[in-house]
# Entry
Amino acid sequence: MNDQIENKFSYHAPKPGQPEIYQEIREKAKELAYLIDQKAPDSREKSLATTNLEQAAFWANAAISRN
# Structure
């Protein structure tokens, strides 16, 4: 059995305080997403910036839930 695989592909119920942290990260990412949307011209680069911001928020929350 590989502990890393087990951890990555298992459900991690939120521990006390974690939902608030997830929300804080999402709110800050949303704030930046709006800034990018307002200031950057519509383009592939803008789309990539938004996608990567979404991924960053996801992975930050995954780091909290998995560790």
Observations:
- Residues 16-66 form one domain.
- The mean pLDDT is 97.
- The chain has one domain: 16-66.
